[in-house]
Design goal:
- This protein has a domain of 138 residues: Tetracycline Repressor, domain 2 (Orthogonal Bundle), CATH 1.10.357.
- The protein has 10 helices and no strands.
Length: 202
């Protein structure tokens, strides 16, 4: 008779693996379960081995990001929404720095690549809305601009959440996004207000 799997054990192993990487500790089967009430077999029971564990760790990073992005409301100001999504991205990275270090490690596949892609699609949808309402040029490529927005957030996250810059550096996202969106066609003063309104990292 198969034993019932406990979601809490699965989550614990994911958290421990991410934390060990963040602490620069070697991640071994024995080290992973040391001090817990589970055996090394748990890694096989829940993940079919270490490769499966790393896939789950990467996926968990995107799962938490997707959950955080769902808290961002869609308003009648799509430029505000774009800034708010970028802000949520950074807040998630700051709250989960160990997972953030690993979610982009292409050395391991994702469990669900489409679910991860959906996080970028939230940005694409907001760009499409800004274009359709005349805030951005009609020839703006939504995927290109969404990717550029993501690159700004990713760069700041890497430099602050897991890097050398202090949290105050996150405010640099406001002028960078403003410049990007003005270049895409938005009116400078209106854009600055929208971005500053949406950028609430915390």
């Amino acid at each position: 008779m198969a034993r019932t799997r406990n979601p809490a054990v699965r989550s614990m192993l994911i958290e421990r693996a991410a934390h060990m990487v963040g602490a620069r500790e070697p991640v071994t089967l024995r080290g992973l379960v040391a001090g817990t009430e589970v055996s090394t077999m748990a890694v096989y029971t829940y993940f079919d081995g270490m490769d499966g564990l790393w896939r789950a760790v990467r996926q968990e990073g995107f799962t938490r990001l997707a959950t955080r992005l769902t808290t961002v409301p869609t308003t009648d100001d799509p430029v505000n929404d774009l800034a708010a999504l970028g802000s949520a991205y950074l807040s998630n990275a700051m709250a989960n720095p160990d997972l953030y270090r690993l979610m982009f490690d292409a050395g391991f596949d994702l469990e669900d690549a489409e679910a991860a892609d959906a996080t970028l699609h939230r940005l694409v949808t907001a760009v499409e809305s800004a274009r359709s309402t005349g805030r951005f040029h009609a020839d703006t490529d939504p995927l290109d601009l969404a990717t550029q927005s993501w690159a700004i957030g990713h760069g700041l996250a890497g430099l602050v959440a897991t890097g050398p810059l202090p949290p105050t550096a996150l405010d640099l996202g406001i002028p960078m996004l403003t410049a990007l969106f003005v270049a895409a066609g938005d009116e400078p003063r209106r854009c600055a207000r929208s971005v500053a309104s949406g950028w609430q990292v915390g």
